[in-house]
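Forwarding the complex inputs:
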Amino acid sequence: NAGVTQTPKFRILKIGQSMTLQCTQDMNHNYMYWYRQDPGMGLKLIYYSVGAGITDKGEVPNGYNVSRSTTEDFPLRLELAAPSQTSVYFCASSSRNIQYFGAGTRLSVL
Amino acid sequence: KNQVEQSPQSLIILEGKNCTLQCNYTVSPFSNLRWYKQDTGRGPVSLTIMTFSENTKSNGRYTATLDADTKQSSLHITASQLSDSASYICVVLSQAGTALIFGKGTTLSVSS
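Prediction (whole assembly, two chains):
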C-alpha cells in the first residue's frame, strides 16, 4: 500500500517557467489537499478537493491551479513560477478525520 | 483570527527523559485537535486526534491532553528516544470549514 505518492522530490525552476507537481493516492480517499510549508512556518492550504471533478481554493491559492479528473490523482500546476513559490509542497488525502501526507516536493525558483 | 500557537519553538532533551509540548489555540467553534509528528524531509504523520469532549488520548509513549475551556492542549512524551527527534505540530479543525489550521511546530531534539 503506497499511500500518497508525490513526484518529483526536488525541482529547481527558473522564474517564469511552469511545472506540474504530481500527487496520487491509492486509498480511495475522496478528500485531497495541497499545502505549502515555508521555513519556520505552519502548513498553508493551497487547494483542496472533496471528490473527482470538485476543487476549491484554500488560504493561499494565487499562482496555482489544480484539477481532479480521477479519485486517485490531484496535480498542482504552477504556470509562471516566482521566487515566492520556493517552498516544500505536501499533498495529502483523508479518510474521516485522519490525513495522510506524501513525502513532499522541495521546489526552488531562481 | 483563528490561530494556533505552540511553545517552546525548540527543545533539547536527553534520551530517556520526559517532555511536554504546549499548544494554545483561538479557533472557535472548534471540531477537533490533532498532533502530528514530522520527521526531517518527510510529511507529517498523525499521532492523536481529540474532539472537544475528550480530555486525554494516548498513543504509546505519546499522551495528548485537551482543555477546551482554556483552549490549551499539551503533548507529553515519556521516556524519550532518539527517534523522537522531529517537529511536533498542533493542528485544529474549525467547525466552520474543511481547512485545518496548523501551528508552526516545536522542534524536539533528543540527544544521547
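The mean pLDDT of chain B is 93.
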